[in-house]
Amino acid sequence: MHAIIQTGGKQYRVAAGDVIRVEKLPFDVGSTLEFPNVLAIFKDGEMLTESQLGAAKVIATITGNNRAKKITVFKFARNKQYRRTIGHRQHYTELKVNEIVA
Fold this sequence. Notes:
The protein is mostly beta strands. 0% of the residues lie in helices and 64% in strands.
């Protein structure tokens, strides 16, 4: 069984036991979260109907709050003597999906 949840303006396909990275959430490591924003649940190859999704939720535990690898952004305009180099590290929260309650 797997589900599609929405958090941080993005959608994620999750199953029990999965570890995913989402946009940074303001909670401590080890805390348990419930995602009531379940968009779809797939069970035995069939999608559950909307009436069955009424009380559906995904329960996950925060395993870490970190920063991703640095990406380098380089801007360049030829013949103008223009060069800019900046870096960026995105904050993220790592979640371990415990169970999907349908």
